[in-house]
Design brief:
Layout (H helix, E strand, L loop, with lengths): L4 H13 L5 E4 L20 E5 L6 E8 L8 E5 L12 E9 L5 H13 L9 E3 L10 E4 H7 L3 H13 L4 E9 L6 H23 L11 H6 L3 H11 L1
Parallel strand pairs: 3-5, 4-8
Antiparallel strand pairs: 1-4, 2-7, 5-8, 6-7
Helix pairs in contact: 5-7
This protein binds iron/sulfur cluster.
Iron/sulfur cluster (SF4) binds next to helix 5, helix 6 and helix 7.
Length: 240
């Protein structure tokens, strides 16, 4: 399933537009960052700053493909690492996942959902992501103590996400990309994330709803605009 390929290409081009010196593939840390196991609160008085706080944007999203990713698997950072940031700023956590091509679109869709749910089950110490299930916003509070005493970095956090994704069967390659660069177009990314969510909702309809009448379907606008969705739905029906 390659419905997200154009978005992966566009986002990669936008990242490439930043100076190459601003991109680093982060080395795997020698330690494993602690997962506190459940949602934990970092109070405003305990935080160093908030990525996506106040007038800045905090975004996250996953994109899937069965085509080979252009970059090696790993954690990438465009911009400053956690220790260099002094105040609230815009931020994005983008995940590109390459899945095994099995020819079974429904199984791939279920895999997408499994990968997406990972974010609800990761609770890094000192890193409180406030996930919104209805938007692509994901502001993150960073604890002052985790920076000062434990030198928390994106390498620590990214490796935690990467490890969870890589455990899921059928995942061939993953890029976990953190962006804090001030010149990145966060608004454009937000639009793409909204589009990806619309496509995901259409896929949900295709694989779970019996309505096959496009004229009355709530997903009609998306299916009119995104090549492949309608073919997928009617091809799916022929198989069942
Ligand atoms: S193909 Fe038609 S019925 Fe299926 S999700 Fe799209 S608009 Fe709805």
């Amino acid at each position: 399933m390659n419905l997200f390929d154009d978005m992966i290409k566009d986002i990669s081009a936008e990242l490439d537009r930043l100076a190459p010196t601003e991109c680093a593939r982060l080395a795997e840390p020698s330690r494993v960052w602690r997962d506190v196991g459940e949602h934990h609160m970092i109070l405003a008085s305990e935080m160093a700053y908030e990525l996506g706080g106040q007038n800045t944007l905090g975004l996250s999203g996953c994109f899937y493909t069965t085509q080979p990713l252009l970059s090696l698997g790993g954690v990438y950072l465009y911009g400053s690492d956690l220790a260099q940031i002094q105040a609230n700023r815009s931020y994005a956590r983008i995940v590109f996942v390459q899945l095994e091509e099995t020819g079974d679109e429904e199984a791939q869709y279920r895999k997408f959902r499994e990968i997406d749910y990972v974010r609800y089950h990761i609770h890094p110490e000192g890193y409180m992501a406030r996930i919104s299930p209805v938007s692509q916003r994901e502001p993150v509070r960073i604890a002052r103590k985790a920076l000062a005493e434990k030198k928390m970095s994106f390498g620590d956090i990214g490796q935690m996400y990467l490890g969870r994704y890589e455990k899921i069967s059928g995942v061939c390659n993953v890029n976990v990309i953190f962006v804090t660069h001030e010149k990145f177009d966060y608004r454009a990314l937000e639009q793409k994330l909204g589009r990806a969510e619309q496509i995901t909702q259409s896929l949900s309809h295709i694989f779970t709803d019996l309505n096959m009448d496009c004229s009355t379907c709530s997903q009609k606008t998306v299916c009119d605009e995104v090549e492949g969705l309608r073919v997928l739905h009617f091809g799916q029906n022929r198989r069942t």
